[in-house]
Amino acid sequence: MAPIAITPEPSRSATPQLKTPTTAWSPTEDNVSSLTLAGIEHALPSKNASSAGQAPLDASLLQIELTQSPRAVPAPESPEVAAQKTCTDHMITARWTLEHGWHAPELKPYGAFSIMPTASVLHYATECFEGLKLYRGFDGKLRLFRISRNCQRMRKSAARIALPDFEPKELEKLIIRLCAQDGEKWLPKERPGSFLYVRPTCIATDEALGVQRPQEALLYVILACFPDMTKSKSAPAPPALNGASNGTKKAPSSGLKLLASTEDSIRAWPGGFGYAKVGANYGPSLVAQGEARARGFDQVLWLFGSESYVTEAGASNFFVVWRNKTTGRLELVTAPLEERIILEGVTRASVLELTRSRLSEAMGDVEALDVVEKRFTMADVVSAYREGRLVEAFAAGTAFFIAPVSLIHFRGEDLVVPTEEGESGVYTRVVKEWLVNIMYGKETHEWGVVVDEVA
Ligand SMILES: *Cc1c(COP(=O)(O)O)cnc(C)c1O
After folding, report:
1. Minimum mean pLDDT among 164-173, 226-235, 295-304, 386-395: which range?
2. Which CATH number among 3.40.190.290, 3.90.1150.10, 3.40.50.410, 3.20.10.10 corresponds to the domain 231-439?
3. Among 398, 400, 431, 432, which residue has the most ligand 1 atoms within 8 Å of its CB, making it the best to mutate?
4. Per-residue pLDDT at 407
5. 281 CA closest ligand 1 atom index
6. How much distance in Å is there from the Cα of 358 to the middle of ligand 1?
7. Distance set, CA 98 to CA 115, 163, 172, 278 (Å)
8. What is the largest CA-CA distance in the chain?
């Protein structure tokens, strides 16, 4: 294949790039790995090239076997829901082999798999996943939120760890079919405002210990009962406030309390796989997460490099609102995607798009905001805090949704983040309301994809 010259995207920030090659780079057979954006695009086969006669993933071939032993739906906020173990009656599975490609997908009773102890995923973390929610709207309809984005991201994540390619639209059809099957029973119409968690997953199942590209894989989709994290009480307050805030200040009782990562602990790095939703990103983060919880914090705020660039909070994207020192204007700021060290959240993209279109001018009493994706450091956050320019902060992702941040602990100092309206700041509340309205059908919007239930 002839290499195509790719002009690197111009950097949006004025500060120098993190370590990137200084010479012009274009993908060739020799230098392409999955390390860069160009590399990733290169590694994704073109849509029609279902390589070497392999069968493509095809939702129209779905085989259906309904359960003979229906499961009980747990009550909302019950211990079963909190335990995150209960799944609905059915699941989707699709097998892939190198010789054949994708076999006919199945919708079948939820249950255990059998894989060999030598299966690739158990040794080499050949796994990727997605997370989205199925919402029961206040108008009685079921909706998925921007599902096409999750399916496209899953394709990219799969490519990063040598799992087989598929047409995202086919995965989308399979997810919708499963939601249509189990939605009616598991999200009763009498419980508007509830949701199920949708977990598409792909694993390599080759029974061979050789370290090589997988030759067998299993794609599956399950629907799990999941607690409403926006209602759950956060971790106990940290014992005492340290640093600049003197002893007279009380630790906030609500909102996420974040513990900034230490210099010797990194979630993701340029050339790594932080942009991909692969299991390998999460296991190694659990030690830091456990330490944070043991010390009374909810999540780790992941920093990068000696400059302490702010990247993400737990498995959510992180936003701050501050007043720009030079222009005096309010800004909504989040880390950029270029370095590929953060996950490109669907929630993140939606917050950015909605804020750009709805708050470029003042909305009643709510002051307009500039929306900025750029690198920023903890030093920037600390100076905004000390100078009274820090307005609010929140985490954004499917699991925790839009969660106000009330405290950041960084290098021995507690920054008490303002939450102007008590539990949250104004912008956190406004952004959350916009999204809730779309997800639960209070506002008709193309992002809310209606699922027709199977009668
Ligand atoms: C899933 C995830 C997010 C949030 O993505 P959404 O699409 O908004 O749910 C953010 N960061 C990490 C590391 C994640 O795994």
Report:
1. 226-235
2. 3.20.10.10
3. 398
4. 98
5. 13
6. 23
7. 17, 11, 23, 21
8. 71
